[in-house]
Amino acid sequence: MNSILSSASYIVALFVLSGVFLLAIDCRIYRMKDMQKEQHAARNLGYTQLCLSVILSSIAITYYYMQ
């Protein structure tokens, strides 16, 4: 059980960090270079990763308290 929770927390941390990186840095770079399609894709992927991290963390917390 602990290995599943530690793996889930690692994955959640990666999703949060990469989502924030996409939103904060990549979107700004694409905006400065006027690359609208890439900016749109980076924004969508960033928000998707943040949403997935919330979903996965809620599943992990539910799994933890169900035990």
From TrEMBL:
InterPro entries: CLC_0170-like. Keywords: Membrane, Transmembrane, Transmembrane helix. It comes from the Bacteria. The chain crosses the membrane at residues 6-25, 45-66. This is Uncharacterized protein. It comes from Paenibacillus antarcticus.
